[in-house]
Design brief:
This protein is α+β, with helices and mostly antiparallel strands. It contains 14 helices and 13 strands.
Length: about 425
């Protein structure tokens, strides 16, 4: 986060300081990122963390309304521009699990961040509703990202209100996925999304419900088959459909999982390999956990009472997470270990302490900071090889006073997972 990069982002967005003051636009970029880095602290506390780096403040911290007006002048596009200048894939060609047959592995998914309950946020952002259509919960900002599965780095992102669906936002990320194999969950299949990604030069591996592309049109030698995915409301060979390959398999004899892919050649891309790759989609969920649980804090609500500033906060969280991921990648490369072994939480705590201790960040101090972290990789930051874990998909905080578990179903803690067995479910040849 060099001053030159921030200045370029502000120039690109046309943000200028109208008059000299203690809260210039360049400082407000760093302050907005600090709000995300210290999400649990108040605005005044965050200002105290940074006051030593701003001589114009002179030890006197402006009130909260001054910071709010300065953030409004800065706007969300400036922080978004900073993200786009930083974001991108980080995995080298030698990083295990980051590529498949020359294609970089990425996942598209989304999450939401709760915003304060204000009339403006409710009207612009939207939020969850109950079965009767009544408001339930806080207004929410929706974030959809294209995440590199091998490193948890965000390659691209889209931020809108919860009133905008994940598939619609995912289409905006298609151009950034060129040359990659993109994995998605079963909420995403659609002709528009399929054409957007394949047209941009990306390949897809998407889970689908049983009703999507259910009619085989050609059986392949490995037991997979080709099928059509039609536009909504169309049946059979209606114009506008796309032809894709369907792979069906089971994990440990459980439910049948259906995957859709544009990789049609069974010899070049065997079904067993693609079925084993689908679980890499969960790396996107792991990156969201880093943002929502560790960086933001569990069940924390954004600070901003206006939709523009709420989106600005969401972009700031993405910038901070990408910077932390880059630190992890540098440390892992220096130590010669897999980046999964570096503790994200410990890196986050070290960075928070460094901001408080060194409010004026010079190149020499940043070098000292990285050297300090590198010296602690072996005994402090290395969490060891990632162990396979499994947890039941159950709500820990129930939304209703009535039971949501099946009869006899227990809520068990996260535990070690045995090796899973993937069994292909070949279609019956006709």
């Amino acid at each position: 986060m060099t001053p030159e990069l921030v200045a370029e982002a502000l120039d690109d967005c046309g943000v200028r300081d109208k008059k000299p003051g203690a809260l210039p636009a360049g400082f407000m970029v760093y302050f907005t990122l600090a709000l995300a880095l210290f999400q649990q602290d108040s605005c005044d506390d965050v200002a105290e963390h940074l006051v030593g780096g701003v001589p114009a403040l002179g030890g006197s911290i402006p009130n909260r309304s001054s910071f709010t007006r300065a953030r409004q002048r800065l706007g969300a596009p400036a922080v978004e521009r900073v993200f786009r200048k930083l974001a991108g894939p980080l995995a080298s060609a030698s990083l295990v699990g980051s590529f498949y047959r020359g294609m970089r592995l990425a996942a598209v998914d989304g999450f939401v961040l709760d915003a304060p309950e204000t009339e403006a946020n409710r009207r612009r952002l939207g939020g969850p509703k109950d079965a009767r259509g009544q408001v339930a919960g806080f207004p929410q900002v929706r974030v959809v990202t294209l995440t590199e599965t091998g490193t948890h780095a965000q390659i691209d992102a889209a931020v809108e209100g919860a009133c905008c669906g994940e598939p619609e936002l995912a289409v905006r990320l298609a151009r950034s996925a060129a040359g990659m194999l993109v994995i998605m969950d079963r909420g995403f299949p659609g002709v528009a999304l399929w054409r957007a990604y394949t047209g941009a030069g990306a390949h897809l591996l998407i889970r689908a419900r049983a009703c999507v592309a259910a009619r085989p049109i050609e059986y392949l030698p490995d037991g997979t088959y080709l099928a059509r995915m039609n536009l909504a409301g169309q049946k059979r060979a209606a114009p506008g459909h796309v032809v894709l390959r369907v792979i069906e398999y089971q994990v440990d004899g459980g439910e049948v999982i259906r995957l859709l892919t544009d990789l049609l050649d069974p010899g070049a891309c065997p079904a067993a390999e693609l079925a084993a790759l689908y679980r890499e989609r969960w790396e996107a969920e792991s990156s969201y956990r880093q943002i929502k649980t560790f960086q933001r804090g569990p069940q924390q609500i954004l600070r901003s009472a206006s939709p523009e500033l709420a989106c600005q906060e969401a972009w700031a969280h993405l910038v901070v997470h990408h910077c932390l991921t880059r630190i992890i990648m540098e440390l892992a490369a220096g130590a010669g270990i897999d980046p999964d072994r570096i503790s994200f939480l410990k890196i986050l705590k070290h960075v928070r302490r460094s901001v408080i201790a060194w409010t004026v960040t010079t190149a020499a101090k940043m070098t000292d900071f990285m050297d300090t972290l590198a010296s602690r990789v072996d005994r402090k930051l290395d969490s060891g090889p990632r162990r396979p874990r499994v947890a039941d998909r159950l709500l820990k905080r129930q939304n209703s006073k009535y039971s949501y578990r099946d009869k006899g179903q227990l809520l068990r803690p996260t535990r070690s997972a045995p090796a899973r067995t993937i069994t292909l479910h070949p279609a019956l040849l006709q």
